């Protein structure tokens, strides 16, 4: 093993990334070194790539980017007993402190000292990554790369869909990006009565039908409110799963949520926006839950159960493969809206 590796780096403030040779990361006593086999692009990576206001306020270059990663453990610190060297793992991107009040009360997913790989510390668009051993989730050795690389992102879908009981419920998923698509699959697996979906990409609207949506509509061109109300006999939906962060989609979703309904919100809005608080939440007596990351480690066990039982089939999700060197093309493909997940291999 040489002392350096190839890595995709945000070198300085501003749009774009660079391929660089950087030192292979060192490991501490509680860490493992993982040789990356595959990584996939997330919407968060697009924010950093474009250098939008959120990225500019959060990321402090230089940093190796990428946080959806799977690979093989090749070294481990002196305190590590699991995973074993040679084990195939997927990575949880939230590195938590384990000592704050949230961590100590089973709420590590909202640990205020969280450091995200690829954002606050070096990530996985590289040949190797160092990470705390507890963040390395062991996989069956024969788990396909296209499934292993999705597990972190799939956890967002599981966390959102499991926020409320979806059994025999009418469910609306607003936003059919990759997480929204996987959320549709989870809602179907957990027994939703009907699943409605909206997006502004024709490709992803059709994809939503493939993943189990009963009705998929163009959020801007179709009469969404009228169609969904008709499909629900004028009642509206029991549960809103908001995955887009689009103010227009959020407004549509809450307009269709019936009184006393449940709303789980994962999508991150671009900033503050006008919202009809009274009619959408207060007078409607809506139950609203914000979703952040994955419950550690409950969501990982739930996701494993869905995948290994065959209740959810993620095999359609990775639609495009690129080498790490072709990351520019990979990001353009992801940004087009005409893809599922885009996977990179070193």
Q: How many DSSP E strands?
A: 18
CATH class of the largest domain: Alpha Beta
Mean pLDDT: 96
Overall morphology: globular
Approximately what portion of the residues adopt beta-strand conformation? 25-35%
Fourth-tier CATH superfamily name of the largest domain:
Medium-chain alcohol dehydrogenases, catalytic domain
Reported by name, the CATH topology of the largest domain is Quinone Oxidoreductase, Chain A, domain 1
Distance between the termini: 15 Å
Whole-number radius of gyration? Answer: 20 Å
Which assembly state applies to the chains in this document?
single chain
- CATH architecture label name of the largest domain: Alpha-Beta Complex
Classify the secondary structure makeup into a structural class: alpha/beta
Please mark out the parts with pLDDT under 50 across 5 or more consecutive residues, or reply none. none
The biggest sheet amounts to:
7 strands, mixed
Return the string of H and E elements. EEEHHEEEEHEEEHHEHEHEHEHEHEHEHE
Number of helices: 12
Helix content: 25-40%
């Amino acid at each position: 093993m040489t002392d350096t590796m190839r890595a995709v780096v945000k070198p300085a403030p501003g749009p774009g990334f660079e391929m660089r040779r950087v030192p292979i990361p060192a490991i501490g006593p509680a860490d493992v070194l993982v040789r990356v086999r595959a990584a996939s692009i997330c919407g968060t990576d697009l924010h950093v790539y474009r250098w939008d206001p959120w990225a500019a306020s959060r990321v402090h270059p230089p940093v190796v980017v990428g946080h959806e990663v799977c690979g093989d453990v090749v070294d481990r610190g002196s305190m590590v007993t699991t995973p074993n060297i040679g084990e195939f793992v997927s990575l949880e991107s939230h590195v938590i402190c384990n000592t704050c009040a949230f961590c100590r009360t089973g709420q590590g997913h909202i640990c205020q000292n969280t450091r995200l790989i690829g954002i606050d510390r070096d990530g996985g668009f590289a040949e190797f990554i160092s990470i705390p051993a507890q963040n390395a989730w062991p996989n069956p050795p024969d788990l396909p790369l296209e499934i292993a690389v999705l597990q972190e992102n799939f956890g967002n879908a599981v966390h959102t869909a499991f926020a409320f009981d979806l059994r025999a419920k009418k469910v609306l998923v607003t936003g059919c990006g990759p997480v929204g698509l996987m959320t549709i699959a989870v809602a179907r697996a957990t027994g939703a009565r009907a699943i409605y979906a909206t997006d502004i990409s024709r490709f992803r609207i059709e994809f939503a039908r493939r993943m189990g949506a009963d009705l998929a509509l163009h959020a801007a061109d179709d009469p969404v409110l009228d169609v969904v109300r008709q499909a629900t006999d004028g009642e509206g939906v029991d549960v809103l799963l908001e995955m887009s962060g689009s103010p227009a989609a959020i407004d549509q979703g809450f307009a269709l949520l019936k009184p006393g309904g449940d709303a789980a919100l994962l999508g991150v809005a671009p900033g503050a926006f006008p919202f009809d608080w009274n009619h959408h939440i207060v007078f409607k007596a809506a139950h609203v839950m914000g979703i952040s990351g994955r419950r550690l480690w409950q969501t990982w066990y739930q996701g494993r159960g869905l995948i290994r039982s065959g209740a959810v089939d993620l095999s359609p999700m990775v639609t495009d493969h690129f080498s790490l060197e072709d990351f520019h093309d990979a990001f353009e493909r992801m940004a087009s809206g005409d893809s599922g997940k885009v996977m990179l291999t070193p």
